[in-house]
Amino acid sequence: xxxxxxxxxxxxxxxxxxxLGQRVRIPRVKFPEAREGGLxxxxxxxxxxxxxxxxFLFYLVLGGIYMGIxxxxxxxxxxxxxxxxxxxSTHEAFIIESIVAGFLIYIxxxxxxxxYNTTKHSFNYSYAIKIYILGIFLVLxxxxxxxxxxxxxxxxxxx
Length: 159
Hints:
Blueprint: H1 6-12, H2 17-20, H3 48-61, H4 64-70, E1 76-77, E2 83-84, H5 95-118, H6 125-154
Helix pairs in contact: 5-6
C-alpha cells in the first residue's frame, strides 16, 4: 500500500524507498504565481454617502470655505495689464491658484495610493517597481510645483 501521491510515487518512489518508506507522503507545495495584472487601486463603492464625502473633501481641499468667506477674484493683473495667476501675498489667493493647488494635492494623493499599491504586488517585482516609480514621480512633481507656487507668492522666486 503506497501512501504517496501517484505522481510523486512514480517519480521518486523507486529511487528513495529507504528514506521515505511506504507510509510517508511527499507534500506538494503550491507557490504563488507572479502574474501581470491590472492596476487595482482602492476605489470608492457605489454608495452615495461615500461619493458625497469625497466631493465635500475635494471642496475643502480646493479652499471652498475660503472662497465662500473672502469672495476672491478669479484671476488678477499687474500694473502693465499682464495676467497674474498667483496672488503676490500668502494671505490672499486667486480662485485659479486655489484650484491648481487643490489638484496638485490630489495628484500627490494619487501618488501615495500608487505607493501603497506596490505592497500588493510584492511577488511581481517588475510591475511593483513600475508602480513605485510612477508614484514617486507624482508625489515629487506635486511637491515641487506646490513649493514653486509658494516661492512665487513669497517673492523668493521671480517669474
